[in-house]
């Protein structure tokens, strides 16, 4: 009954609401005069009437099912009928298109039946009935199977093989090239071509041919690995160029078979070889997932983790591996061995987990020797278990003599692991146990056995020396020295240090001398000999070794350009070589060989002189236009200047290793203390020795040295300095900021400028200029320290520091950074130290003040009073870091020195006002009152000025203070005073805050809703 009622309702509904498809057909007929194609009706469509059943599924998917929707629309719904009409047209066009496609497919099938090869191209995938909506693009298909070579290609291949077998490689290659021209996808042709190149010794082309052949069969993993073997067979010199190809081949092999352990292992090993330890670790971890507990992988992973500095990853993998191998010791090939244990304990030692290394070394060794059941040895604190006899072992109650062979105890542990156990004991302070193990090594100190254990002897000796057991260390050092071929300079230096510690200076001297004989450029031996002879008061010998040490320590001068231009002359006056003329670069490496000035050398020098003369002329001609900003002239001038500067920097006389030593007698200790690029201890030693040898300051009665020239290449050094500085500024303007810094540094390091205080001042001024052009606050702060260091307690040096940071267009990050604050605080402490009574200096100061400035006699310049600028500068640094309470301490110190200063009063007032706005401010009203007090002291002092700009400044600052506090009604009055001062001055103002005041007034008016006044102020003062 219910079903019949439902059917009746549906029949009634269909009579009331006609079929939308039929309605659409009627509309289509009335418009076009044709009968519509009913094949698109998905509800009455018969699949069997269609040439391709896929069309039915396609139209059903795109057309949808309207049976559920037919009762929801009326035949009067014109929009719906229009939509259906458009859908009908779309379906009809799709069917016509698919019919055309089927015709083409049939034609191609007929063509293939007649023997024509199929046309390659990207076809359209079919749409199945049960196609998943999630995989819209269909299933992923691999490459098509390679077509069978045609008869012509097979014939040519047989000809190529025959020629190859007869060693007619050129003939075979010609045939193969013809095959490749016909069909480049012939795999056999590329393989045979690779074999030909290999026979000819052309590894480069062999690799290329093999990679192409492998690309034609990308799923062949062995082919890709064979390509890797070819790429990595090259010698060490050429290996780097083939690493990229090897990476490509490994990646292709992994794509072909993601579970290929050999490919993943090789790729990770290659990353490790290149130093990409992070990628290597990831690769080895992936291999471990494919092959758990693989010992070779564990070893490589440990190597990568140690180099990367993260041994924890490998340690965890090793612990899991040891647990696995202990459970199935006899069923694993290869088994866990001593070398694996060695790697494991080394991982623990890299993390300085020496106690864990000792425990794991003993426990695992016991297991490897078959005594895992003797767990009681883990409860002993010493290493008696590993003694060579039972003297100490029998004292253990649980030990049973003869339960296990003697070879499973001390003699069973490899010597290398025993040495490691001794070293770990030494590191944790168990010296007696360590010495027992070391004595076992010492028993192999015969001359014929030492070469096999030389590295262990050296490692033990260095460890004992570092632990201050110098006498014991000498036993192992001397054992190595018994074998002449094992003697090395570093061991001799270490022996000499040990002899000095135990009070045998004669042998120490002999060791240091031997080290120099073994290694001519040994730096440490010369330093030790210099200290040794200085202690013996043999100053001349000590001075000689200091010179040699400095020669080895100083790096070569920095060069900006790879192509250096050697020039000897820049003007006609330089036809003859000067005293500081540079030696030829092409030097003979044969001792005692002195090259004469041959005709060839003179010709080369003449060419260099002509080249430099041309560059110098260009600089002179283009200089004025360059200064005016002409682009082409600037470029030409910079190119020529770079050649001149390169030539200057190439002269070793200007950058000598003995810079401050050679000039010690002429420029005093200032030059020694300023030589920051050398080791400070070595510099101090050189200073002491030179003074003891009689080096004097410039003011001494002795005549100054005359060996320093005043010109180079015919130009005075002042001209050269101008070229350096102008070139640096040009580089900065062109955006080459780092290069401009390097030029300034090169000028600073040149000895002819270094000894001149005026030149150094100009160089640092130029350096600051380049930093300002670059908006480089860090460099500004760093270079500005020079002025505060060399002109300490000079007010202008602190003002310059503040001005440089003010001019630098960057956020104040380095200005108030931690290092800057500490440096300025040290300056203040040094200032306070000299002004404090001697009785209170030790009470209030932990160390003496650091005085960096010196007078002409080399004496430290000490201040006699306080510097207000220094106190205010440090206060501003704290103020900019929002440390207002701390800044007030130094502002008040400055206030005590100069209470009438406008800037001091303004700074104190603003510090109080900003402090009051902090969230945790105590007694906010009192703090604001204090701030306003100082603000009006500043105001009363400033408004009396005769200059309009200063009066404007006073009005504006008070208005801005009220504005900041939210007292806008009070702020407006002072803003108006700023405007009134501007009306009186007219256009005479140089520094004008009128626009700022007007903008703030109109903002206040607009915020309070008075738009009329806001508009009036804006139209009068803010319209340009």
Automatic annotation (TrEMBL):
This is TPR-like protein. It comes from the Eukaryota. TPR repeats lie at residues 261-294, 489-522. Keywords: Membrane, TPR repeat, Transmembrane, Transmembrane helix. InterPro entries: Tfc4/TFIIIC-102/Sfc4, TPR-like_helical_dom_sf, TPR_rpt. The chain crosses the membrane at residues 868-888, 961-979. Residues 26-42, 566-579 have a biased composition (Polar residues). GO terms for cellular component: transcription factor TFIIIC complex. It comes from Coleophoma crateriformis. One of its GO terms (biological process) is transcription by RNA polymerase III.
């Amino acid at each position: 009954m219910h079903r019949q009622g439902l059917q009746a309702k549906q029949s009634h509904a269909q009579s009331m609401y006609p079929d939308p498809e039929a309605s659409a057909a009627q509309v289509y007929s009335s418009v076009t005069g044709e009968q519509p194609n009913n094949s698109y009706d998905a509800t009455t469509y018969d699949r069997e009437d269609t040439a391709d059943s896929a069309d039915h599924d396609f139209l059903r998917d795109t057309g949808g099912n309207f049976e559920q929707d037919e009762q929801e629309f009326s035949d009067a719904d014109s929009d719906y009928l229009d939509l259906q009409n458009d859908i009908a047209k779309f379906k009809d066009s799709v069917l016509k298109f698919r019919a055309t496609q089927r015709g083409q497919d049939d034609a191609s099938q007929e063509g293939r039946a007649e023997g024509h090869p199929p046309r390659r191209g990207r076809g359209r995938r079919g749409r199945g009935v049960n196609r998943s909506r999630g995989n819209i693009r269909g299933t992923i298909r691999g490459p098509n199977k390679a077509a069978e070579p045609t008869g012509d290609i097979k014939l040519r291949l047989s000809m190529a093989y025959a020629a190859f077998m007869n060693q007619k490689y050129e003939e075979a290659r010609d045939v193969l090239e013809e095959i490749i021209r016909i069909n480049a996808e012939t795999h056999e042709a590329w393989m045979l071509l690779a074999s030909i190149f290999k026979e000819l010794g052309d590894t480069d082309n062999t690799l290329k041919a093999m990679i192409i052949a492998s690309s034609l069969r990308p799923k062949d993993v062995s082919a890709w690995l064979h390509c890797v073997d070819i790429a990595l067979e090259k010698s060490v010199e050429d290996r780097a160029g083939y690493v990229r190809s090897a990476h490509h081949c490994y990646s292709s092999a992994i794509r072909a078979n993601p579970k290929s352990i050999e490919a993943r292992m090789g790729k990770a090993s290659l990353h490790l070889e290149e130093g990409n330890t992070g990628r290597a670790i990831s690769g080895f971890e992936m291999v471990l997932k494919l092959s758990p507990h693989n010992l070779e992988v564990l070893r490589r992973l440990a190597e990568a983790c140690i180099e990367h500095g993260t041994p924890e990853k490998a340690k965890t993998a090793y612990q899991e591996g040891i647990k696995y191998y202990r459970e199935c010791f006899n069923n694993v090939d290869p088994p866990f061995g001593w070398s694996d244990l060695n790697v494991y304990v080394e991982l623990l030692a890299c993390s300085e987990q020496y106690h864990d290394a000792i425990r794991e070394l003993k426990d695992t060794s016991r297991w490897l020797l078959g005594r895992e059941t003797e767990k009681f040895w883990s409860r002993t604190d010493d290493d008696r278990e590993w003694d060579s006899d039972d003297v100490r072992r029998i004292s253990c109650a649980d030990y049973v003599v003869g339960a296990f062979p003697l070879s499973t105890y001390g003699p069973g542990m490899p010597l290398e692991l025993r040495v490691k156990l001794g070293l770990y004991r030494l590191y944790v302070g168990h010296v007696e146990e360590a010495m027992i193990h070391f004595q076992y090594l010492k028993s192999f100190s015969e001359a014929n056995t030492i070469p096999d254990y030389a590295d262990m002897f050296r490692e033990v000796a260095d460890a004992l020396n570092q632990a201050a057991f110098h006498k014991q260390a000498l036993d192992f050092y001397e054992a190595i020295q018994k074998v002449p071929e094992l003697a090395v300079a570093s061991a001799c230096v270490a022996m000499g240090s040990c002899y000095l510690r135990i009070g045998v200076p004669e042998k120490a001297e002999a060791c240091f001398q031997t080290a120099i004989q073994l290694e001519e450029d040994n730096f440490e031996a010369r330093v030790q000999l210099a200290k040794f002879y200085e202690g013996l008061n043999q100053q001349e010998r000590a001075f000689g070794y200091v010179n040699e040490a400095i020669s080895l320590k100083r790096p070569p001068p920095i060069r900006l350009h790879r192509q250096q231009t050697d020039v000897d002359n820049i003007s006609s006056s330089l036809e003859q070589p000067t005293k500081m003329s540079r030696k030829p670069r092409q030097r003979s490496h044969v001792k005692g060989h002195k090259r004469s000035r041959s005709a060839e050398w003179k010709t080369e020098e003449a060419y260099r002189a002509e080249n430099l003369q041309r560059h110098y002329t260009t600089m002179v001609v283009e200089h004025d236009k360059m200064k005016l900003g002409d682009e082409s002239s600037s470029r030409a001038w910079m190119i020529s200047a770079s050649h001149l500067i390169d030539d200057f920097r190439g002269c070793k006389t200007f950058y000598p290793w003995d810079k401050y030593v050679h000039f010690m007698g002429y420029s005093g200790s200032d030059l020694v203390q300023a030589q920051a690029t050398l080791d400070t201890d070595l510099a101090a030693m050189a200073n002491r020795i030179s003074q003891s040898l009689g080096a004097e300051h410039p003011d001494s009665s002795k005549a100054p040295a005359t060996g320093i020239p005043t010109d180079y290449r015919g130009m005075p050094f002042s001209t050269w300095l101008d070229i350096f500085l102008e070139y640096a500024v040009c580089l900065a303007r062109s955006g080459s900021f780092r290069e401009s810094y390097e030029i300034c540094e090169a000028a600073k390091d040149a000895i002819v400028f270094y000894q001149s205080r005026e030149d150094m001042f100009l160089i640092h001024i130029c350096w600051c200029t380049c930093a300002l052009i670059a908006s480089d606050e860090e460099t500004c702060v760093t270079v500005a320290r020079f002025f505060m260091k060399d002109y300490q307690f000079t007010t202008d040096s602190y003002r310059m520091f503040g001005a440089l940071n003010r001019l630098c267009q960057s956020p104040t990050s380095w200005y108030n950074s931690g290092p800057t604050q500490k440096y300025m605080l040290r300056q203040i402490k040094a200032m306070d130290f000299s002004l404090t009574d001697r009785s209170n200096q030790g009470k209030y100061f932990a160390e003496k003040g650091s005085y960096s400035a010196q007078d002409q006699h080399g004496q430290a310049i000490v201040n006699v009073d306080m510097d207000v600028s220094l106190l205010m500068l440090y206060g501003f640094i704290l103020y900019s870091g929002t440390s207002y309470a701390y800044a007030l301490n130094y502002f008040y110190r400055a206030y005590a020195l100069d209470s009438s200063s406008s800037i001091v009063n303004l700074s104190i007032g603003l510090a109080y006002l900003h402090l009051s706005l902090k969230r945790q401010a105590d007694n906010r009203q009192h703090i604001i009152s204090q701030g306003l007090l100082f603000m009006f002291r500043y105001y009363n002092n400033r408004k009396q000025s005769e200059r309009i700009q200063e009066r404007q400044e006073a009005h504006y600052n008070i208005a801005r203070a009220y504005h900041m506090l939210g007292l806008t009604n009070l702020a407006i009055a002072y803003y108006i005073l700023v405007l009134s001062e501007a009306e009186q001055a007219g256009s005479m103002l140089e520094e004008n805050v009128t626009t700022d005041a007007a903008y703030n007034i109109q903002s206040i008016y607009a915020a309070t809703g008075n738009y009329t006044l806001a508009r009036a102020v804006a139209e009068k003062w803010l319209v340009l």
